[in-house]
Please model this.
Amino acid sequence: MKSSFLLTASAICGSYTTFVSSFSTNGAALQSRTPMKLDMFFATEAADDDTAAASTTKDSMDVKLTPLDGSESSVINAAKFMVDSFWLQSPQNLIDGGGDLSSISDASKSSLTNIQADDLLSKYGERMGKRKLDALIVVASDGSSDTKSLSADDILGLVTIEVRLLNSNDLLSADESEFRLTQAVASLGPKQRREYKDASVLDIARELLPPEVTAVCSLSNLCTSPKARRMGIAAKLCSEAERLTKEELSFDEIYLRVESENEAAKKLYEDKLGYQCKFEASATALLVDAERGGFVEVDSDIVVMSKKL
Model:
């Protein structure tokens, strides 16, 4: 089976300002238009993050790791990087039918970038009021780059971190997680609601939700530029995500999801980074539709891993 990219079944939902054509799993266009959200989750670039193959380059390269401020321009640049480096140039080839970069028209690339940008802005961009669930984009760049004015071409790698709810063996989407937390507080009386106004997600989950539902921090969207692979940048991004998870977000464990067939990624996480398998599950994955500038869905088996920090 061709490697693909995860879109959880619950992700195609909710209010969304940008609409894209929805396609069936065999690639045929559906008649209706459906709001789409992309639920990213793993690093197919793991196979190219071979630290032994380029140890000298890795050690001598000055890499700067910076959380983005969530501004529209910074998130759009992150989206452009993801389309160029991940969707269209992944070592796993995520283009449906096995095409390459030459099969992507400018219009299709622009469509993919718009979809990706809208998705990232909804999850990691600036918005009115404080987010209930913390979410960060961390980028890697050359140490000489000005991090305040990074372009998509300046980015060497990227990873995202977001807080979600884990319901037994089901890592819920960001929308579903926020809905459950909001409903839990809304069900209280006025005085109790005031007490939880500034409570942490960890406290709300622990005190108001069923015992099988817990708040967790999830690493996702890990990808590196083709020009910067085999330099250990994916491992550096993972380490920074782990540091932020523990020191800034106050979680003592971090989760991620990877396709069961992606042995290279699993090897990186288990053997080099110390992650352990928590459970396996089925999910819906994505491939790029080069002709339409959208995505097609395929079935996928995934492994959910975690690491104590």
About this structure: The first strand starts at residue 5 and ends at 6. The chain has a mean pLDDT of 82. The CA atoms of residues 132 and 200 lie 8 Å apart. The first helix runs from residue 55 to 60.
